[in-house]
Amino acid sequence: MVVQLDQQLLDILACPSEDHAPLVVGTPGDPDADFLTCTSCHRAFPVRDGIPVLLLDEAVELSAAGTPAGTPGPSGTSGPAPAVDPTPRSQPRPGSGTPGEGSSAG
Ligand SMILES: [Zn+2]
Fold it and tell me: Do the strands 51-52 and 23-25 form a parallel or antiparallel pair, or are they unpaired?
């Protein structure tokens, strides 16, 4: 479920931490998550019934992967599949070699 918040509301919302940084919808790992992520301290605040819970006690510190740890995800997240590179392989070369007789008696 995508968080539906007015842009004006997002403008006035700020991180309750001391950085007071603006918030963005979703998390770096899941833009559709019901979270508001601080752009400074990267805390994720849950959005319950369309109401952002901007409490440090409720905040979830995102891991390096950008996903909140310890919280059950609302929906399965599927990342982009890595591209498969065709492995270059050497083509079989035709056998080069001319059988010849180099000995001649003259
Ligand atoms: Zn913050």
Answer: unpaired
